[in-house]
Amino acid sequence: MANPSENLRMEDLSWEKCNQAGSFTISTRPELLEHDFINNAFASEEMYWAKPVPHPQLVTLLSNSITLGLYERQPVKSAPGLEEEQTLPPRSSTSSGDRLKQIGMARFITDHVTTAYLTDVYVAPAHRKSGLGIWLVACCHETIEAHPALRRVLLAASPQVGKPFYARELGMWDVVEERETLAIMSRKKFKAPGE
């Protein structure tokens, strides 16, 4: 008998979109994620809450998450006499032969059944202002809706921009509105040994 939670891991969801800016794919397939892109995003000023992590820790971080990778699809021209598969690493190509270049991400830290924390929503600066961020969050919404036993989704956002954006796009609300029945508590960094 199959374990029902295996169906909820969401590792094979994908969406495609074409607009005036190009052709794009969003996928939850972990093998498509570009670790260098993710660490570069973590190092950017836009992701002020994050910082790059060593590769083994990044692998652990991603394996404990559902990560929606946002990719630009780029047509590939094979060298004469070579098969396309020989010119591309398999994880970076699509069934249509396009190369996938990661340009964004959104990550759910989750138990894959009842609880999810949305974090690390990012679109590379060169690809902003073309609706890709809103589309990425819409795909996050579909991912949330695909979890029938999900009790709560959490996120942290800036009060001026993030709060109204996520309220509009995901139906999120500030937990202050539930202050009589709920307190969300936080503690920042714990000191590492020797600090």
Tell me the layout of helices and strands:
Elements: E1 14-19, E2 22-27, H1 35-43, H2 55-63, E3 65-74, H3 84-87, E4 99-110, E5 115-123, H4 132-145, E6 152-155, H5 162-170
Parallel strand pairs: 5-6
Antiparallel strand pairs: 1-2, 2-3, 3-4, 4-5
Supply Rg. 18 Å
The tally of domains stands at: 1
Name the quaternary structure.
single chain
By CATH, the superfamily comes out as Gcn5-related N-acetyltransferase (GNAT)
Strand order across the biggest sheet?
Answer: 1-2-3-4-5-6
What is the count of DSSP helices, taking H or I runs of 4+ residues? Answer: 5
Distance between the termini: 49 Å
Number of strands: 6
- Percent in helix: 10-25%
Q: What integer is the average pLDDT? A: 84
Structural class: alpha+beta
Beta-strand residue fraction: 15-25%
Molecular shape: globular
Largest sheet: 6 strands, mixed
The CATH class designation is Alpha Beta
In CATH, the architecture is 3-Layer(aba) Sandwich
